[in-house]
């Protein structure tokens, strides 16, 4: 028992304060694995979007509309097709030097269960109802799929339109 002029804390008060502090620290420590998992998932989503954007920039950089149409059906699971080899870039020597599609495929496959696909739908040009001619337009969609732990499949999808 403390007297009327006693200062300080009792042993019981100290134990209660330490218990409350310990419970608070344990609760905060439980957040770290969740935060780490969320950061890792965000990193994978960012990587998938960057890889999709890289392919989209390759397609937009093509000199001709017909070259854009050749990307239709491109898939990282089937490299070596005629279109793959033709679009792989002039630096592809066939002697082990990776071309631009090979490098893109490597980035896709670096994702967990990664797969990249390109879909191109070409809408034929013609003459509008008022007699105005219009050019061909292609809808280009790049999809990069990956697995996110036990949560299942995720993807990054970019779509743009390219006019002739």
Protein described:
- This protein has 164 residues and is α+β, with helices and mostly antiparallel strands.
- The chain has one domain.
- Helix content is 43%, strand content 21%.
- The chain is built from 5 helices and 5 strands, in the order αααααβββββ.
- It has helices spanning 11-29, 31-60, 65-69, 82-87, 100-109; strands spanning 115-123, 126-127, 133-134, 137-147, 153-163.
- The strands form 2 sheets. It has a 3-stranded antiparallel beta sheet with strand order 1-4-5.
- A hairpin with a 5-residue loop joins β4 and β5.
- α2 runs antiparallel to α5 (100-109).
- The relative contact order is 0.15.
Summary, kept brief:
The chain has 164 residues and is α+β, with helices and mostly antiparallel strands. The chain has helices spanning 11-29, 31-60, 65-69, 82-87, 100-109; strands at 115-123, 126-127, 133-134, 137-147, 153-163. The strands form two sheets. It has a three-stranded antiparallel β-sheet with strand order 1-4-5. It has a two-stranded antiparallel sheet with strand order 2-3.
Strand content: 15-25%
Mean pLDDT: 84
Low-confidence stretches: none
Radius of gyration, in angstroms, nearest whole number = 29 Å
Morphology: elongated
Helix content, binned percent: 40-55%
Q: Assign the structural class, choosing from mainly alpha, mainly beta, alpha/beta, alpha+beta, or little secondary structure.
A: alpha+beta
- N/C terminus separation: 91 Å
Number of helices: 5
Which strand order does the major sheet show?
1-4-5
Give a count of the beta strands, DSSP E runs of length 2 or more.
5
Biggest sheet features: 3 strands, antiparallel
> Helix and strand string, N-terminal first?
HHHHHEEEEE
What's the structural domain tally?
1
């Amino acid at each position: 028992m403390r007297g009327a002029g006693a200062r300080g804390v009792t042993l019981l008060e100290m134990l209660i304060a330490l218990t409350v502090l310990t419970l608070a620290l344990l609760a905060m420590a439980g957040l770290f694995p969740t935060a780490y998992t969320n950061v890792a998932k965000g990193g994978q989503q960012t990587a998938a979007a960057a890889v999709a954007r890289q392919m989209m920039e390759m397609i937009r950089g093509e000199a001709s509309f017909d070259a854009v149409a050749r990307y239709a059906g491109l898939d990282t699971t089937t490299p070596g097709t005629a279109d793959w080899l033709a679009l792989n870039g002039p630096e592809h020597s066939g002697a082990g030097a990776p071309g631009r599609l090979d490098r893109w495929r490597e980035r896709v496959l670096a994702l967990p269960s990664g797969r990249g696909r390109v879909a191109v739908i070409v809408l034929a040009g013609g003459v509008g109802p008022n007699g105005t001619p219009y050019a061909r337009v292609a809808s280009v969609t790049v999809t990069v799929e990956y697995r996110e732990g036990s949560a299942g499949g995720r993807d990054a999808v970019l779509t743009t339109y390219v006019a002739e």
